[in-house]
Write a structure and sequence with these properties.
Shape: extended
Mean pLDDT: 76
Number of domains: 3
Helix content: 40-55%
Oligomer: single chain
Order of helices and strands: HHHHHHHHHEHEEEEHHHHH
Low-confidence stretches: 4-34, 345-375
Radius of gyration: 28 Å
Number of strands: 5
Strand order of the largest sheet: 1-2-3
Distance between the termini: 30 Å
Length: 375
């Protein structure tokens, strides 16, 4: 879980890459920087979370007393998730943060379940291509999947056939004669069928068949199933199309029942893979898996050898050669391989380096004073 440490530095650029602890920092190391309220408000507007602006203001209004609250680090960890694209939310952080911030502001402890939730969530995920995810969210809201689906002619052909189908119109008119369909419209005049979840999970079956609303929903669901619809916008059918959606648990691909599927011709596999990897998914495979496993094993052994070398008083070149000999590496192996192997293990600005001398690695670059600030 990230720990909150106030800092006076303020920085940012057009990509809005901030120092450690901010949700969009690529390395995602432990939090050491408090962003300004203006930066947080700007990012929330970029994410389309205008309803959450008051949460950011409430968080930044917390005083020193709240910063010393025993649950403040948990609150800060939850607050970071507010800046993650909401298609990756597995929890309603909007309401959760309102409650947690109010509790900390009043000096009250958070419930044990909320503390466990913050621990399980940890730091916000490493969003490598935030711009790609935001564009995808906008396309999904507008029903655009052209960037990932090639054979849209199948959708257009089915839509034309449906518009000219007299049976479809007759059945829709029967539904309108039996039920007051305007009562079920949303603000846009749309009626949605019930949503089917993952692995064909459906909601609890309604048994109150005397209810007019239950009868309408059952009839409308069946109507949509027959004609492959997502719903109706007034008298216009909303035909299902192939969709690719990011979820908190993975990337979901939906293929309508009427679609004759040809993976190579219908999908842009490169675009889908690019979207899926935008959340920071590393490359995988049998060879890469064995290499990573070997690297983890070597790193574990190297940590043990470092401890032994320090106890024996080895330093500098002598320590390097001794460790490489213990790892059974070739004598001509570049010592930088050992440094790369131990790099994830080292932490702290003044930590001792792998060869026993003071670390000469520069601090993580921080955008300087001349960088433009968000409005």
């Amino acid at each position: 879980m990230a720990r909150y440490t106030p800092c006076r530095e303020r920085f940012g650029d057009k990509s809005f890459i901030f120092e450690a602890g901010h949700p969009f920092f690529p390395a995602l190391i432990s939090a050491t920087v408090r962003s300004t309220l203006q930066q947080d408000l700007f990012l929330l507007k970029e994410l389309g979370c205008d309803d959450c602006l008051d949460i950011a203001r409430s968080f930044h209004r917390l005083g020193k007393r709240a910063h010393r609250h025993p649950d403040f680090n948990a609150l800060f960890s939850l607050y970071q998730w507010l800046f993650t694209p909401y298609c990756l939310w597995c929890v309603d952080f909007d309401q959760l943060l309102r409650h947690a911030t109010a509790q900390v502001a009043r000096g009250k402890r958070l419930k044990a379940a909320i503390l466990l939730l913050a621990e399980l969530l940890g730091d916000s995920p490493q969003v490598v291509r935030r711009d790609l995810i935001l564009q995808h969210m906008q396309d999904v809201e507008e029903g655009k999947y052209e960037g990932m689906v090639r054979a849209l002619c199948k959708y257009e052909q089915k839509e034309s056939e449906l518009a000219a189908n007299a049976t479809f119109r007759q059945e829709w008119n029967k539904i309108k004669a039996l039920f007051p369909v305007r009562r079920y419209w949303n603000k846009g005049g749309v009626i949605h069928r019930e949503i089917i979840g993952e692995r064909n999970t459906i909601s609890e079956i309604q048994t109150e068949w005397k209810s007019r609303d239950v009868l309408f929903q059952a009839v409308f669901n069946t109507f949509c199933q027959k004609w492959s619809l997502y719903g109706m916008r007034k008298d216009h059918p909303l035909l299902l199309k192939i969709s690719v959606n990011l979820t908190p648990y993975g990337t979901m691909i939906f293929v309508p029942s009427y679609w004759s599927l040809d993976w190579k011709r219908d999908f842009d596999g490169h675009a889908i893979s690019k979207l899926h990897r935008s959340r920071g998914v590393p490359k995988q495979g049998p060879k890469l898996g064995s290499i990573r496993l070997q690297r983890l094993q070597d790193a574990g052994r190297a940590r043990q050898f470092i401890t032994q070398a320090r106890r024996m008083g080895f330093r500098g070149e002598r320590r390097i050669r001794w460790m490489m000999d213990q790892l059974r590496w070739h004598v001509n192996t570049d010592p930088s391989r050992l440094r790369r192997l131990l790099q994830p293990v080292r932490s702290g600005e003044e930590a001792r380096s792998w060869n026993g001398s003071r670390s000469t690695q520069k601090k993580t670059p921080v955008i300087g004073k001349g960088a433009p600030q968000p409005p």
